Amino acid sequence: MTQAVTTDRRKVVINPVTRVEGHGKVTLHLDDAGHIEEARFHIIEFRGFERFIQGRPYWEAPTVVQRLCGICPVSHHLCASKAMDVVAGVDEVSPTADKMRRLMHYGQTFQSHVLHFYHLASPDLLFGFDAPVEQRNVIGVIRAHPDVARKAVLMRKYGQEVIKATAGKKIHGTGSVPGGINKNLSIAERDVLLRGIDEMIAWAVEGLEICKSVVKSDMDRLLAFGSFDSNFVSIVTEDGGLDLYDGNLRARDQDGKIIFDQVPPAEYVNYIREEVRPWSYMKFPYIISMGKERGWYRVGPLARINNCDYIDTPIAEAERQAFVALGGGKPIQSTMAYHWARMIETVHSAEKIKELLNDPDLQGDELIRKGERRASGAAWIEAPRGTLIHHYEVDDKDLITMANLIVSTTHNNEAMNRAVQTVAAQYLDGHEITEGLLNHIEVGIRAYDPCLSCATHALGQMRLQVQLVDQSENVVSELVRG
Fold it and tell me: Which residue in 407, 313, 401, 304 sits closest to 79, CA to CA?
């Protein structure tokens, strides 16, 4: 529910921002003529897991750090496990461990993308950005499109069942450990999942077609909405293929030229640096060789589809080729194209789940490997929202002394700020804030599927509000939702 509060400073607050994971605040700076000069997306919480984990045994990291989030704990669980593989001296886990982890991860990506598209984003796409707020929500989707809503619920349930079968629990599982896993997939568990996978692939394709039809029905407006040029970063295989679980880092510039490629996790500090700004708990990563002003980039589904050279599953690859053709040889830059790319990955995840379920290595009995202990370990994974980096240092007593987490939403921090500014310039410039405008700003943020809890390591309750600020730092208008 949105509540507009009028004061001498025309205060309007949004609290919390709807249909994103977490809370935030948007501040718009205006010049004397009332035009947008700057937009800031604030995350007003602090969580601090990089400090909490210090002093704990290194093998606890995969189960402790995933408490950052209840939506994407699998990503933190697996990324911490991969970093601690390095610490444990294991350069390559067994085929059973590798494929169990991959199955867990594709189950997570499948259910997370479905959650975002159907539950959070589809009300905007199906009813329009300016639709009545009473309709523009998941209940409105259930009423107007009951079959779509039913399939969305069952698709998310399927992804969570994959996670439960591989991690032990749907949320905050314990299946992955330093050096491997603690269980394989039984034949009975495999057969249950196999019975539903063809239907999941078919429904994922239906979801992709819904997304494509909405975009194509209003192509010019939607592709221009909140769009700007950027660099893109993601991990790829050695031959440039899409891989959501493992690979090396690649960056492209706005014209599609490779900035760097095949960077291993241990060398990330030589290519990416994090900037801290006084008005936000979120950091601002950038490509070192390009500097702060030009080196910011985007991650996530759009970056991955723009960055990779191919996808190794047939339906998703055909859809990738059709998607990138829209760019005429250059990366697709539209903010709203994130949804299209996300649904291509949803199809890909379902295809990979089927491929993995038919692999007998999942029933192997080599679960854990051991090696010679090392003092540090860094790893990454492509979480649903983008590249996730975990880096730890461990002392001679096996206790963690340093942890650095660069999460997906943090990588997209500058991009989300620019999306807010671009949307505000397109729709707010010279006008007073309204509920419809507020939702336009939210739509721009929502496309990135931000997980604000992960990004800011918050402590306490988060807030989100939109403010207009003049050149004298006076709040001239504010919108509150709550």
Answer: 407
pLDDT tens sequence across 148-174: 999 999 999 999 999 999 999 998 999
pLDDT (0 to 100) of residue 4: 39
Query: DSSP string covering 236-286, please?
Result: E-TTSBB-SSS-EEEEE-TTS-EEEEEE-GGGGGGTEEEE--TT-SS-EEE
Taking the C-alpha atoms of residue 348 and residue 401, their distance in angstroms, rounded to an integer, is 38
Q: What is d(CA 385, CA 40) in angstroms, rounded to the nearest whole number?
A: 20
Q: At what angle do helices 95-114 and 146-167 cross, to 10 degrees?
A: 160
Element (H, E) at 103: helix 95-114
Query: Cα separation of 189 and 49, whole Å?
Result: 34
> Which pair of structure tokens corresponds to residue 357?
């379920």
Residue 451, strand partner residues: 21
Cβ neighbours for 232, distance < 8 A, ≥ 6 positions apart: 251, 252, 297, 298, 299, 302, 303, 306, 307, 331
CA 96 to each of CA 83, 369, 383, 439: distance values in angstroms, whole numbers, following the listed order: 18, 11, 21, 46
Distances (CA, A) of 221 to 106, 341, 422: 32, 18, 13
In sequence order, the β-bridge partners of residue 181 are 176
225 to 1, 124, 440, 447, 471: CA distances (angstroms):
25, 13, 9, 11, 26
Pairing mode, strands 180-181 and 176-177? antiparallel
What residue ranges in 24-102 does DSSP mark as E strands? Answer: 25-30, 36-42
The residue-averaged pLDDT of 359-380 equals: 97
**Helix 187-217 to helix 337-357 angle, to the nearest 10 degrees?**
160
Residues 6+ apart with CB under 8 A from 408: 75, 299, 300, 383, 384, 385, 386, 387, 388, 451, 454, 455
The whole-angstrom separation of Cα 39 and Cα 468 is 9
- The Cα 436–Cα 381 span in angstroms is 37
Is residue 141 exposed (0-12), middle (13-18) or buried (19+ Cβ within 10 Å)? buried
Region 440-445 average pLDDT: 86
> Reading across the β-sheet that carries 248-252, which strands appear in turn?
258-263, 248-252, 231-236, 297-298
H or E, element range at 412: none
HEC profile for 299-353?
A: CCHHHHHHHCCECCCHHHHHHHHHHHHCCCCCCCCCCCHHHHHHHHHHHHHHHHH
Structure letter (DSSP) for residue 120 = I
CB 104 within 8 A of CB 175: yes
pTM: 0.89
